[in-house]
Give the backbone structure.
Amino acid sequence: MIVVATADFEVYHGVVGELRDRGVDFTTIEPGEELPDETSVVVTAADESHEPAGVEVVRADPETPRAAVDEVVSLLRGNGGKLVVGIDPGDRPGIAVLSGEMVVAAFQVPADQVAEAVHEEVTDAVDPLVRIGDGARLLGARIIDDLGDVTVELVDETGTTPHLGTGTRGMGDVLAAVNIARIEGEEIESREIDPTAGELKRIKERSREQSETNRAIGEALARRVADGQLTIEEALAKHRDGDDE
């Protein structure tokens, strides 16, 4: 059983809210009260000296109650709590955060917000690991560069997107990210990509779609977009100014 024992109102409110959102059974007591016989984990505030014997103790920060609940769930599952983040790259990448085998968070954000979302999840984690699928090569390479000093593995994402039944539209990228997080990959620090003719063509087509005058950028600018040197908007601005290099 999970027992929340804290005099800190913010910790109490945050942790209890997270536990209720997840449908996890728990009880609450005042610090110092006798623990129920079936207690396995006690949650208390980081600055409280409450140290019950014979049970696991998780100390929660009022700013990050979800992290404490993630740790609690991990302890109950007995999975060691290794934090792994899976990313299915694309225009709207799916992100899944696993603690051991349990999915503790999932997101779908624009590609330029992936690194920020991942960093928020791995802050304070011990030896976190990010696994990213090898599809959407150009966007994936850019995400890897943006992740900085986090350990990253490149995963063969073949077959990671499941069949989606009725009512599951839009879930494919997130579910693929869960599967990617569970597959061992090759550790990399960066990914050098020489864009194919097809990838450059798609960038040009996207620039035409975004252009107010229905004009596409040239190959030189498309390559700079592919390399992450420019956004399509920046490339279009250069094109309008007559700078096609």
Remarks:
- The mean pLDDT is 88.
- Helices lie at 9-21, 65-77, 114-122, 137-147, 172-181, 197-210, 219-226, 232-240.
- Residues 83-188 form a domain with the Nucleotidyltransferase; domain 5 fold (CATH 3.30.420.140).
- Residues 15 and 69 are 7 Å apart (CA to CA).
